[in-house]
Design a protein that fits this description.
12 strands; alpha/beta
Amino acid sequence: MITLVTGATGFVGSHVARLLVAAGDRVRVLVRPGSSRSLLDGLAVEIHEGDLRAAASVETAVAGVDRVFHVAADYRLWSRNPAEIYDSNVGGTRNLLNAACRANVSRFIYTSTVATIAVHRPDSEKTSILPNENTQAEVVEMIGHYKKSKFLAEQEALKAADQGLPVVIVNPTTPVGPGDAKPTPTGRIIVDFLNGRMPAYVNTGLNLVPVEDVAAGHLLAAEHGKSGERYILGGRNMSLKEILTALAYICGRPAPRIRLPHAVALMAAYADRFISRALNREPRIPLEGVRMSRHAMFVDSLKSERELGFRSGSVEAALERAVRWYEGRGYVRFAAGNQLAHARTI
């Protein structure tokens, strides 16, 4: 059996590919020419060079495949050309779904995001009910091009399921752990903290989950998931303050004590965008990220536990694995006389 994995050179996709190889699958990975393949080092996979945006390339990659794990995504909170994000996330997903339908694959696992579910509803603040897979959002509720593109791509996956393709959708929350090489926006929070570049924080929250468990959830979805259904792969709802406190315990660096009002953070983001345009560089404070932070991304992921047998391990241990991975690969610049504390382990 041949299993195709897209996004295998990335954070979640590399962990999915490793689990599939360990399970005995013959794994083919779709890789863009010139992309870094360091996360695939030592992994016995068949590499197919191509681009999701090119339909012919996708057809060749899917030929002879039994299952598809579509993990790839253009995950950016800022782009000089937002159309690129839609071309990859929406157009690329449509190309792959069409090719999988023609190839008559037995299973198609689409990696969406919790962002299509964890939308802010003012009425929800009056109750203890958290967003879950039954939460039906609209594209106008998505903040930023990344979220909008993933929402539209998820709609393509649901449409394909309605037309008979066995598509199961997984909605990871915020994965943390080793291998976040780019890094993702959450990984940047960890790296910035380790480098002492986080003097303050905003009042927000995320649902964190070990990346290894997210990968395992993909395989569980392939085995137990129902076509046309969504499954949140989540772990623990944590405020940003709690996350930074956990990081402080791991590395021995004090957590920031200043809570920045959202209005101040928003002003800083607008100012940074203005400066970045003048200097022709990527903003250091993504405006979309600040806008997203106005509301906690807390969710209920019990459905995956009940129907898939999904379980999430220790988030603190996953954060520590992420810290050690970044340390070991030169992401952390040690200031003179300052060493990260290794005495504490979780």
